[in-house]
Amino acid sequence: MNKTSFEELKLTGNLPSPSGVALEVLRLTRSEDFSHQELAETLQSDPALTGRILQVANSPLAGAGAPVADVGEATVRLGTGTVRSIALGFSLVSSYRSGQCEFFDFTRFWSESLARSLTAQALARTLKTGSPNEAFVCGLLSDVGHLALATVHSASYSELLKASGDDRALRRKRETEEYGIHAREISQLLMEEWGLPSKCQSAIHQLDADLDPAGVQKMGLGEVLWMSRRFAIAFWQASSTPVDDDQVQALLARSPHWDASKMPLLWNHLVEEWQRWGKTLGTQTHSLPSYGTKPVEAATEAVPASAEEIPHDLTPEIMEEEGDLRILVVDDEETSALALTRQLKQEGFDVQVCIGGEEGLRMTLEWRPDLVVADWMMPEFDGLDLCRALRKFPQGNGIYFILSTHREDSEGMLEAFDAGIDDYVTKSFSTELLFARVRAGERVIRLQRRIKKDHAIMRKQVAQLGILNRKLKRASLTDPLTQLPNRRHAMEALETFWDKASREGVPFALSIADIDHFKSFNDTYGHDIGDLVLKTVADSLKNAAEEEELVARLGGEEFVILHGGTDSDHALLRAEAFRKSVEATTVEHAGSNLAVTISVGMAEYARDRQDAEELLKVADEALYEAKEHGRNQVWAAPMPTASTT
To answer: 465-477 pLDDT, tens per residue?
Structure first.
């Protein structure tokens, strides 16, 4: 796993992350002895999240009961796991609902993530595989690496998705080539960054596994996620069974806690939960057919949650330095508030008015003004309460806050500035003085915009520089003709294999392949055909390679193959497989097919060999023997004996 590439992504400042409040909820609830009072106080610092907690506590999701208005009571009713899930889910969904990555379907991403998390939770509970709430969080975040790439590298990742299509293996390969890290690894490292259990981090690798149910001895979180992904895709496609239903059923049958007759009940329960949570979190869901029935075409039409159910995106936008300044006037006296609003509008500002502090808080979260002018003395929720509430979450910290007050005593003003105000005017202010205060705030706001814009450009440059550095490094380690790793890359890899074998005893072998009679291709047909032969052989060797093998071009017509984790007997079989692969390949020229063969010399790592250079030399000597004995064959170098060391 390439943590260096992950650190480069972090430097951009654009990686998906839960809000500070959601992260604090995760931290608080990690142990069993947390304080419910502290949890309630943490939640209350984010008014939008508090509203969602209360909404769920009073909804069918929480069961029957008298309405609750206190967030502390709501957390007790819902339970720690549900509160944690809501905090994490709402924080991420509301902040990353859309983006600039054209070929990344944000709507589908969150809809499938929600279905996956709910399925994982239900299966964990039914199959008794561990904590259902941990399964929920793991299911929700298991694909967050894709969101990270779509957020940080929106343009290039869009092109990558377009080119890869539905081929997950190809997409993963191209992610690694382009960014030095693939999405699954990013998901794992983000989980680690957020302090989630290590079993969640390791389980997500099962999502793309070619899983054989017959080989599963014990059901775990990895298998639960594997199944939940197939449910989630089916939900989005409005299917009536999980994708790969036979395999899912076979895997479920491995659990002693599963009753196959309960599948329709589970399916219908998950559909209802998906639709309910979709409304709560503002993710798109739609109708689904009953389990096992023929899908109805109309069921595939997506029905989004109503506008009232969808929370507004609170992520700060990188705004241009120019543009209208948005001002929110908050006062409990409607006449004075409207008069001030008219005056500010006459000066060219975009102004909204709210009557009362609570309405002002709601409007601030919804409209996101640049500047707030609020009266101090308002009943129940006054100007300082509003300011303190805004300063408790990141988006509110960037708002310029002017307090309107009758007070001018130093003690009162100290309290106001401690609460977080930026400036104040007395109730006896003249219009000119207020405009001067607003203009001063405008200068600060435009400076902040410029700084944000500069930071955004810098983050983008950091991301682009990281990609450019990887491309330059890859170019320096790649043979331009065959696109195989070059000699330098091969020598670095050989040293790595050698060190690992020396320290950990991991065996490996090395083969050198040489194209037979290569000079005759150049002399007879010209260098263009010679180059075509080289590329054809390179492709043949590359296609024949297994996962632990590296094929590189040494130079001229010579190639080197590193066989990782294998002894001489298996390496000899592998070298023969490469030889046969090339032998079965032909090069077209002038209507005829030119036969191509290679000779191969193979040598195995041994502690008695002095170093990697000696191993390369021994393999080269074995190659010479293969050529001397008739070419188109593999020759293995003898192992060293005590007398040769």
So the answer is: 777 777 777 778 8
- Segment 392-448, tens digit of pLDDT: 776 778 899 999 988 878 888 899 999 999 999 887 767 788 888 899 999 998 888
Angle between helices 132-141 and 183-193 (to 10 degrees): 130
Question: Residue 441: what residue type?
Answer: G
Are 260 and 253 spatial neighbours (Cβ–Cβ below 8 Å)? Answer: yes
Three-state SS at 355: strand
Q: Is 130 left (phi over 0), alpha (psi -120 to 50) or beta?
A: left
Which residue from 217, 216, 199, 224 is spatially nearest to 128, judged by alpha carbons?
224
Sequential DSSP letters for 553-604 = EEETTEEEEEEET--HHHHHHHHHHHHHHHHT-EEEETTEEEE--EEEEEEE
Give the Cα separation of 433 and 431 in Å (integer): 5
Distance CA 202, CA 363 (A): 42
Residue 225 C-beta-side C-alpha neighbours within 13 Å: 26
User: Model confidence over 503-558: pLDDT tens digits?
Assistant: 888 999 999 999 999 999 999 999 999 999 999 999 999 999 988 899 999 999 99
Residue recorded with tokens 């070419």: 631
The residue type found at 342 is R
The number of C-alpha atoms within 13 Å of 559 and in the hemisphere containing its C-beta is 34
DSSP 16: -
Three-class DSSP category at 22: helix
Q: Quote the CA–CA distance of 635 and 603 in Å, as a whole number.
A: 9
- Beta strand extents in 376-422 (DSSP E only): 400-405
Tokens at 218, concatenated: 């014990």
Rounded-to-10 torsion of CA 251, 257, 260, 261: -160
CA proximity to 512, closest of 569, 564, 579:
579
Asked if 284 contacts 107 with a C-beta cutoff of 8 angstroms, the reply is yes
- With contact defined as beta carbons under 8 Å apart, do 207 and 192 qualify? no
pLDDT digits (tens, 9 = 90+) for 72-122: 888 888 887 778 777 877 778 777 888 889 999 999 999 999 999 999 989
Helices assigned H by DSSP within 142-244 = 144-152, 154-164, 168-179, 183-193, 198-203, 221-236
Backbone angles phi, psi at 428, to 5 degrees: -90, 20
Q: What angle do CA 448, 452, 456 make, to 5 degrees?
A: 170
Tokens found for residue 140: 């929700």
C-alpha distances (whole Å) from 78 to each of 28, 65, 74, 81, 568 are 16, 11, 6, 8, 61
DSSP line for 280-315 = HHT--B---PPTTSPPPGGGGS-BPPPTTTSPPP-P
- pTM value surpassing 0.85: no
Q: In residues, how long is the chain?
A: 645
Instruction: Report DSSP state, residue 165.
Output: T
Q: What is the pLDDT of residues 138-155, one digit of tens each?
A: 888 889 999 999 988 888
Closest-CA residue to 111 (of 82, 145, 149, 140) = 140
Three-state DSSP class for 254? Answer: coil
Contact criterion met (CB below 8 Å) for 153 and 99? no
DSSP-assigned letters across all residues of 439-460: HHHHHHHHHHHHHHHHHHHHHH
Quickly count helices (H) and strands (E) in the chain.
27, 12
Largest CA distance in the chain: 106
**Amino acid at residue number 65:** G
The answer to whether 514 and 627 have CB atoms below 8 angstroms apart is yes
